[in-house]
Amino acid sequence: DADVTQTPRNRITKTGKRIMLECSQTKGHDRMYWYRQDPGLGLRLIYYSFDVKDINKGEISDGYSVSRQAQAKFSLSLESAIPNQTALYFCATSDLGTSGPNTGELFFGEGSRLTVL
Amino acid sequence: AQKVTQAQTEISVVEKEDVTLDCVYETRDTTYYLFWYKQPPSGELVFLIRRNSFDEQNEISGRYSWNFQKSTSSFNFTITASQVVDSAVYFCALSEWNTGFQKLVFGTGTRLLVSP
Fold first, then answer.
1. Nearest-angstrom CA–CA distance, A11 and B100
2. Tens of pLDDT, residues B11-20
3. CA B47 → CA A75, B17, B50, distances in Å?
4. Subunit contact B101:A113, Cβ cutoff 8 A
5. Per-residue pLDDT tens digits for A36-95
6. Which of A37, A46, A98, B23 is the most exposed place for a label (fewest CB within 10 A)?
């Protein structure tokens, strides 16, 4: 089983609908992230969290919200989806340094492809 | 502010050719890490290498090699004798000490197409 699991893997929805992407991890990492990938733009950070009480905006947080329900769970919500949120979304984790070197290395889920019509 | 530039949007080669993917970074920090990730057509992101700013030794792993040069702020990736399975998008990324290595900043990626 994958250490970082994203659900759903693929989703097609309509403009205005509320969508939640879920992420769970078994790596025991404190840090969790949501990135968005668009062709030609690389990966851009949406939100990140260093523990259940810590939520931080990334560079493109508008139109998104997150919830850190537990150390192992970090969900991303689109309250009212719009077509330009069509993208590949990645959840990732990293180690704070308590069980390994603190380098910023990310461990990614397999991605969730979202299409907003 | 940290920044990573991958100027090559797409590279096409024929199998067995050598190919180099360029990565140039900007940082004011003296302590940082550089990374390469591979994204094959299936979409997942695969970690390839991590290098800290104090280690400028080149690294070789099979057909893959990395050339880290602080003088030119570059961390280039070379695939020797490319194969069709090397076709993927490759991302270079940077994390800095002054952010507690809290965030990884990615380049826009280079798509490598290796044809038979």
1. 35
2. 999 999 999 9
3. 23, 23, 8
4. no
5. 999 888 899 999 998 899 999 999 999 999 999 999 999 999 999 999 999 999 999 988
6. A98
Range name among A1-5, A64-68, A101-105, B109-113 with the lowest pLDDT average: A101-105
The pair of structure tokens assigned to B108 is 């826009």
Region B25-32: mean pLDDT is: 92
Report how far residue B77's alpha carbon sits from residue B34's, in angstroms, rounded to the nearest whole number: 12
Cα–Cα nearest to B36, from B77, B74, B8, B96: B77
Q: Using a CB-CB distance cutoff of 8 angstroms, which residues of chain A are in contact with residue B107? A: 42
Q: Nearest C-alpha of chain B: how many angstroms from A57?
A: 11
Strands B74-79 and B105-106: unpaired
Q: Is the CB of B101 less than 8 angstroms away from the CB of A50?
A: no
Residue A109's pLDDT band, with cuts at 50, 70 and 90, is very high
Tell me, yes or no, if A27 comes closer than 8 A to chain B by beta carbon.
no
* Structure tokens, B75: 């961390």
In this structure, which amino acid lies at residue B23? Answer: C
B112/B36 Cα distance (integer angstroms): 14
Please tell me if residue A102 touches chain B, with a CB cutoff of 8 Å. Answer: yes
What single string gives the DSSP state of each residue in A6-55?
A: EE-SEEEE-TT--EEEEEEESS--SEEEEEEEETTTEEEEEEEEEETTEE
